[in-house]
Design goal:
homotrimer, alpha+beta, 5-stranded antiparallel beta sheet, 3-stranded antiparallel beta sheet, 3 helices, 8 strands, about 25% helix, about 40% strand
């Protein structure tokens, strides 16, 4: 009753990206009723659910997250992997790496305006691995 | 083994509100052991779990979230839906739209001081839809 | 098909702590495929997943969370339980109290660099109770 699917996202540039269609395309037929867990196996990127229409929202997410956790704070001690590294870790935990989305009528039960975001917080994060688990 | 219940919350004013009793009243008998997922189908409100006793905590949540994501930042580009709109999207992802609460002995296994909060981040958000999924 | 295990963490000092091994040691054999939910029954501590190697990341988490939600803000109204109390509540909701981790090949499907953090946000938080739920 549990099915797991590995999804490897292509390298995205730093910022927030809509990945709903990519995720959906990797899932075969969904059960009539169930739950999807999306688990991102990284500590410097994040997943969240937000507005799926206007790209300006994603643009402003990057702006605001940079203000919340600015780079080059002299109080940081974990600095040897680049100025973007420690802030990326914090941003990952301010968003999340694990989200549950209910399945209803064989579809993800997202609201009309909801999409799945990948937050890429590194300057060169590379490919990102996600484990999708469907249970019914 | 999976049951889904749609809950429509009445329009709340901007701020944080305790909705534990409202959610519980919509769920019939809970299984002896299981899991409840609460999924909010919106991008400008949020759900989190926090202190259920003193209303001053909810009051201060509103204060702190407004400081974390202030309105009228000239760097925002998504501004055409009102000053409260872009900050509401960010606040939604800083809290969450999807929370899992275990079920134990036919009851939500919340800690003594834990309650379910709705964070209403719009000035006039209107009714909010939640999909509750119970699995055992 | 659902198993629940109560875990009582020893009192940790304020800050972020790696609790992966403690959690794993409390879980007997894991199913081949499934899901683990970790639910923290408190409102002034949090759980998140982040870097499991360099302790400087956990040190900087404490620094950044203190900057995000400073103590002694004169706008706070919930002040009678100590300067650390209201900020602890907010930090709990900025991280989370409920996380799902998929189980694959009888092991937690964490990424190579991922570990489970307890964020202890009180100066003297004492023991913390976690309810682990495994479903397959």
């Amino acid at each position: 009753m549990i099915k797991q699917i590995e999804v490897v996202l292509p390298a995205y540039k730093r910022g927030f990206h809509l990945i709903t269609k990519h995720i959906e395309s990797m899932l075969d037929s969904l059960p009539e009723t169930g739950m999807l867990n999306i688990f991102l196996r990284h500590t410097s990127a994040g997943i969240c659910i937000n507005e799926n229409a206007d790209p300006s929202v994603r643009f402003d997410f990057e702006t605001v997250f940079n203000k919340l956790v600015p780079e080059n704070d002299p109080d940081y001690t974990h600095v040897f992997e680049g100025d973007d590294d420690l802030p990326a870790h914090i941003k990952s935990s301010l968003s999340s790496v694990s989200i549950n989305i209910p399945i209803q009528n064989h579809r993800l039960a997202l609201g009309i305006w909801q999409g799945i975001y990948l937050g890429e917080f590194r300057n060169n994060g590379g490919k990102r691995s996600i484990l999708c688990t469907i249970y019914q």
